[in-house]
């Protein structure tokens, strides 16, 4: 299955929901009038773009239709797709990892698929020819390191871990030392997801950041936030909180195959102005895909 087909299949639920509503809107209106715009805005909100992003998209479409004198429904649909693509293009979607080693901190609340995402990312990067090292810095959750170790084996990469309850910053320190010794290209760090206790999480992430700055001051560093696509607007609230705590540089949206509200991807990118780097569209190890805004919107509409 090709890249586009895989995204299209993964977004089946969202696309069917949008086709049902958008199809009726675009075929049901002979003229592009105020009622058309109201129906369109409601449809986008139902796809979980959120009120703010849906309103902005419709306003931009209204302006574009007027400026370009668009009358044909297909031309208006195409203009809407262009607007949604532009909303997603808020930064570089490629992983910033040019130094050796580079570091990716992966954050997010428990249950969003963080550890699974790290395993799939590791597999993807290894297939690109990168030497990857996993760092089990979530020492708070029972069996987190065991789960990561299973993914390390599955992905064919190495892992650094300590005992449960160890200081996460000390695991990161060990991983940096191991990466230097082994000629690692990228360190992928799992972290605890205790958002309900923000102070502890801030202290922990702050300590990890200081270790990275001290030991690898010149290294490329990414902070990737993993969000569960099925949680919709709640994911947006989580993202805002993590952005305040951790200085998020990119996002990964998981479980998009399990929701009819995949429009949350557009809402998150637009509201937070943080690029989406990967999306998860299935259970298989190769179902985490580098994000492409145009392919995403084409698969959606």
How many helices in DSSP terms? 12
Helix content: 40-55%
Q: Assign an overall shape.
A: elongated
**Uncertain stretches:** none
**In whole angstroms, how far apart are the ends?**
20 Å
> How much is the radius of gyration in Å?
21 Å
Mean residue pLDDT = 90
Percent strand equals: 5-15%
Question: How would you classify the quaternary structure?
Answer: single chain
What is the number of E strands? 8
The structure class reads: alpha/beta
Strand order of the largest sheet: 3-2-4-1-5-6-7-8
Quick one: biggest sheet? 8 strands, mixed
Series of secondary-structure elements, N-terminal to C-terminal: HHHHHEHEHEHEHEHEHEEH
Report on the structure:
The protein is an alpha/beta fold and 301 residues long. 54% of the residues lie in helices and 13% in strands. The protein has an eight-stranded mixed beta sheet, with helices on both faces. Helix 7 (144-155) links the parallel strand 2 and strand 3. The two termini are 20 Å apart.
């Amino acid at each position: 299955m090709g890249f586009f087909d895989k995204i299209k299949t993964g977004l089946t639920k969202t696309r069917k929901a949008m086709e049902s509503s958008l199809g009726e809107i675009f075929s049901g209106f002979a003229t592009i009038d105020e009622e058309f715009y109201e129906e369109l805005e409601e449809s986008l909100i139902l796809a979980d773009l959120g009120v703010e992003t849906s309103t902005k998209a419709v306003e931009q479409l209204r302006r574009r239709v007027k400026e370009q004198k668009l009358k044909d429904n297909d031309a208006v649909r195409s203009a809407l797709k262009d607007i949604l693509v532009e909303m997603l293009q808020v930064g570089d979607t490629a992983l910033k990892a040019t130094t050796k080693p580079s570091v990716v901190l992966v954050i997010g609340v428990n249950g969003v698929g963080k550890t699974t995402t790290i395993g799939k990312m590791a597999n993807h990067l290894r297939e690109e020819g990168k030497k990857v090292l996993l760092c089990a810095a979530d020492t708070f959750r029972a069996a987190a390191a065991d789960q990561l170790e299973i993914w390390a084996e599955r992905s064919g990469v190495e892992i650094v871990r300590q005992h449960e309850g160890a200081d996460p910053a000390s695991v990161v320190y060990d991983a940096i030392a191991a990466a230097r010794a082994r000629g690692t290209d990228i360190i992928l760090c799992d972290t605890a997801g205790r958002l309900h206790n923000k102070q502890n999480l801030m202290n922990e992430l702050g300590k990890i950041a200081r270790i990275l700055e001290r030991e690898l001051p010149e290294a490329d560093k990414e902070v990737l936030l993993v969000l569960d696509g099925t949680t919709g607007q709640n994911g947006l609230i989580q993202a805002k909180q993590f952005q305040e705590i951790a200085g998020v540089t990119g996002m990964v949206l998981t479980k998009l195959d399990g929701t009819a509200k995949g429009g949350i991807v557009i809402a998150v990118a637009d509201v937070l102005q943080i690029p989406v780097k990967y999306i998860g569209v299935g259970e298989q190890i190769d179902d985490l895909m580098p994000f492409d805004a145009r392919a995403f919107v084409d698969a959606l509409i």
